[in-house]
Amino acid sequence: MKGFTLIETLVAITILTLSVAGPLYTANRAIVAAETSRDQLVASYLAQEGVEYVRRVRDDTYLAAYSAGGPNVSDIAWQDFLAASPAAVCRSPQVCTLDPVESDGPPLSACPGNVCTAPLYLLANALYSQQQNLPDSQETPFVRSIEIRDVPGTDDEKEVVSSVMWSFHGSAYSVVIVDNLTPWQ
What we know:
The protein has two helices and eight strands; from the N terminus they run ααββββββββ. The protein has helices spanning 6-68, 73-83; strands spanning 96-98, 108-110, 121-122, 128-129, 138-139, 143-150, 158-168, 171-181.
């Protein structure tokens, strides 16, 4: 008997297709998992940056009060931090966003309707910003929000909640970092 029959050919093609499709599917899933992991890592850094910025504002407020001198420096600085510092715009129920490269105004700004929807842009110098009109800025899927909440049962402790949300392949993801701040003692 010479050559292959039609059925033998179809079986051979099916086996070949399955042997190629399996590894391709596995490679595709590995690439998606790697991209999701990359985004989660970036989002956790962006969320941590939000917490660290609020902490820095608290520390700067204390240093300003300490430089001015007087009694109860820690209490005065804490009240200034809560009421008059740039972070005061993030006091619950208000939610704000952070743009660390903002040059025209405060880095923390209130989100309209307490919902942050403005995406972050990756700049040429590898910084993330809300400013889309800077040279070589690329829109990212990340949206950051920061909120300073009261901690129930305490008068001198606040909870800083920094969230970064994004969407990838139709699925919503988020990273939330929570830290508690107290006045300097």
